[in-house]
Amino acid sequence: MCGIVGYIGQEPAAPILLDGLSKLEYRGYDSAGIAVFDGASIRMEKTVGRLRVLQELTQNGETMPGFCGIGHTRWATHGCPSDTNAHPHMNREHTIAVVHNGIIENYAKLKAALQKKGYEFVSETDTEVLAHLLTEYYRGDPIKAIEKVLSRVEGSYALGIMFLDHPHHIYAARKDSPLIVGFSGTGKFIASDVPAILKHTRTVYYMENEEIVSLSMEHIRFYNLDGEPLEKQPVTINWDIHAAEKGGFPHFMLKEIYEQPKAIRDTISPRIQGDDVALEELGLSDEQIRSIRKINIVACGSAYHAGVTGKYVLEGLARIPVEVDLASEFRYRDPILEADTLVIVISQSGETADSLAALREAKGRGAKVLGIVNVVGSSIAREADNVLYTWAGPEISVATTKAYSCQIAALYLLALKFAKVRGQIDPSDFSQMLQDLRNLPEQVEQLLGQKEQIQFFANRFLATEHVFFIGRGIDYAISLEASLKLKEISYIHSEAYAAGELKHGTISLIENGTLVVALATQENLYPKTISNIVEVKSRGAFVMALTNEDHKEMEHTADYVLYIPKTNRFFTNSLAIVPLQLFAYYISLGRGLDVDKPRNLAKSVTVE
Ligand code: M6R
What's the pTM value of the predicted model, to 2 decimals? Predict the structure, then answer.
């Protein structure tokens, strides 16, 4: 999604803005722009394409002198990617400049009303409405004008605003789109996310919904929408700055795949204490855990796929019925939630608009909401009743890897805890499963050693047009994620199918040479999956199978076989997904694509 950076301080603003925007590139964007007060006017440069085009255009910011400015990377929603639609947007007099993340839902109505009053629009964006509306309400006091504008807009926004009349100030506001405010000894910042300003400061304020802030060299002042001052406490970010850098890897995705052993370890180790699972952060007493009658898991994309795995594991171990919903569906399907329903919202970013709306829907219906979230202090983390953090660290690549792995690890912990408290697991099985959990990070490391073999295999399929991933039970859940990973970064059409379902229609798409990736890690389903492999092979498919290390006989059935080390059948996802992440990575690399920033995608989807 779009990225915002703003700076006011003692150093030239433009290079800081450009550098900050480069740290937000991972969010996905199609154009970029900056506006800087140059001592007399607000100068603006914006362009479609990569940030490097803007860097060249401004000679890395040198052609835009000044100490106060705002910048933006745009991910198109209203109007195609173009120089004109890129942000900032200004009023006709060039006295007000605005950058915006989110969507102004009633922009058409506002635009028509402004046009009637003689305002001329140059772009197709919803954001331009804000620049003109600010002009309409501005009488010398920026905060009052912002308040009035925000009282008229519907939708979501994170805003950075400059007024020529107040040249050494930046104003910002947020609702349902993330925004932080930071300060160092030499300047003040606004940003959509921490990496943009981490180089300069670790001291930040998280802006809450419907808050306005004014920043100058001397002050940072927060207000509510009635213009009343607010007291806020800054927090210290404890991210390692190198965690947001590539650290010698060619891509963030590969780096993050390699960080999985540590990320999984960090997520599970502090929560396995002796022979028990300690999850105080759930805020649930044993009595409350015993009284849960149903769990609803709600999420989007890969987090949803983690939820599908969670369903199998929670139902299998704790014997609690689980429904899994895509957040965009859940929020509009009038879900039946009782007081003894636990709703789990899973999200890496903690800012996904549909997941956040689903959370609010669930809370509004009286359900208790648990967030499984990676970004500390994010909206979902703050609004959930309780949070089980995944300790994956910052994830930059658009395609999630380590955060997904931590989400399923967190779900294993939850399932084991619930199973024990509800008396559904034999104590010796419980102890063995804890040991299996502890072994996962080392086993993932072992799998990373297969990287060359996987690259070699991937290179054979660079020109393939269709891929099918098939599996049963948890293997089906793995297929969903493996398929998404491949298609989002390689642009190869790929589908995940429950292996037993293929013959009900989709098998007609299998022809000579079609690549089918068959997952067969579930012992109880192994013979069934073998039959499904035979079915596709006899229709000409080339089958790559992925199974447990003691199933060497798979080589008689499949054309190519990858093995995973031994673990409990509920945990195989954590191992099987690793070679398939590498497979997707090497296909994308071999096809010469932008692995970390695939077309049309954004890291954090903050619009509906
Ligand atoms: O930040 P979230 O976990 O809420 O994001 C959900 C999806 O947008 C995300 O998992 C997406 O599907 C990834 N690009 C997949 O790699």
Answer: 0.78
